Each structure stands twice: as C-alpha cells, then as structure tokens.
Amino acid sequence: MEIDHLLSTTRAVRRKLDLDRPVEPEVLEECLDLALQAPTPGNVQAWRWLVVRDQDVKDRLSVLFRAVGEAYLAERASAAPSRMLASGRHLLEVIDRVPVFVIPVLAGRPAGDNAVDAAFYGGIFPAVWNFQLALRSRGLGSTLTTYHLAREAEAAAILGIPEGHTQAGLLPVAYTTVPDFKPAARSPLAEVAYLDHWGTPLS
User: Fold this and answer.
1) Which of 52, 58, 66, 182 is most exposed, with minimal Cβ within 10 Å?
2) Cα(164)–Cα(106) distance, integer angstroms
C-alpha cells in the first residue's frame, strides 16, 4: 500500500469490523513484530502485549468495557455528533464478538509528572500506531479504546497482569468489511500549526 495513502486512511474502525472472520495468529504476530520496531525512549522497550482470544475472557472484559462506555456516551449524548455516538454504541453492542482484543501494557506506573509521564507513555503509543498501520496494510482494522481503564484493576485481575504494570488501552482487532477508507475531515493545517510562537501563522 502506498505510504501516504496508508497514513491518511488508517481510521478508527468500529462499525466495519468483520465479526465472523477469524484473525490468523501468524498475521497478528507479523503486525506485533512490526509494532516492536517503533522508537522507544532510551531503548527501554518496556512494552508488553496481551492478546485475548478466549471467549470467556473477552466476555468478562466486555462487561467492564460496556459499563464504562455506556456511562460515557450517556454523558456525551447532548454534545457529541450523532454519527460518533452511533459508532461508539455499535462497538459497545458487539465488543464481545470481535475476534481478538490486543491490550498494550507498560512495565511500570505513571509518576504523575508531565515530563516523566510523556516519556513513559511515549514508549507505547508509537508502537500501538505501528501495530495499527500494520493491521491496515493487511486488510484489518482496529481502534484504540480506553473505556476499561476506568476499571483497570478489575481488568488486571481477569487477565492476570501483575502489579506494577500499566494497561494503555484495548484494541478490538478484526478484518474490515470494506476494502478501503477515505481520509477524514480535519482542521486546516493553518489553524493548528504555528511558527516560532503560539498563534503565529506557519506560512
């Protein structure tokens, strides 16, 4: 896939996940191998990846996911665009049917200091994006969700994650039901990028 097209059309996929097509282990492992090539602060490589296929485990995590997600969407009902709400609700309804969950985990816990935590999370999110791009290039989709993090300790107990580790999200992974996506509507660069000082036009 041509690189600029890949970068501009890798979407957060919720409604167009193929819930019935299995995801081959070797394809998932290829994508995780590419995730490991992401840059990491100090080359620490503190990432861990928990792949969840067992239906009982997915069901138990889905209970947490739905409880937090439903409350969140209810709060946003009057402010968020209806299309976004419908997409979010769809994922809540089908989350347990998604073939695979991938949970990125960091060894350690955030310190509560912006400079330290930027480096801490900077060790996982580039790898997550590598993973999502690799999925997209192979016809799969995902979205980085964080609902279950509101009940992280309960999820850790379900998954057997030891203390001193931080879950950074949950990615539902499946093949997509469409072959391609379009670039999203975004604010013009001139409105969000500045030169030398805040508010100074880039050009």
Assistant:
1) 182
2) 9
Work out the angle at residue 133's Cα, subtended by the Cα atoms of residues 128 and 134, and round it to the nearest 5 degrees. 95
3-state SS, residue 144: coil
d(CA 167, CA 165): 7
CA–CA separation, 70 and 129 (whole Å): 26
For tokens 């290829």, what's the residue? Answer: 30
Could you list the beta-strand ranges (E) of the chain. 47-52, 100-107, 140-141, 165-167, 171-175
Contact 103, 167 (CB under 8 A): yes
At 77 the pLDDT is: 78
Q: Does the pLDDT at position 82 exceed 80? A: no
Is 80 exceeded by the pLDDT of residue 1?
no
Q: Which of 62, 65, 87 is nearest to 76 (CA)?
A: 87
Distance of alpha carbon 135 from alpha carbon 34, whole angstroms: 10
**Measured distance CA(85)–CA(75) in Å, rounded:** 11
**Which amino acid is residue 120, in one-letter code?**
F
19 vs 11, 42, 56, 74, CA distance in Å?
A: 17, 39, 16, 25
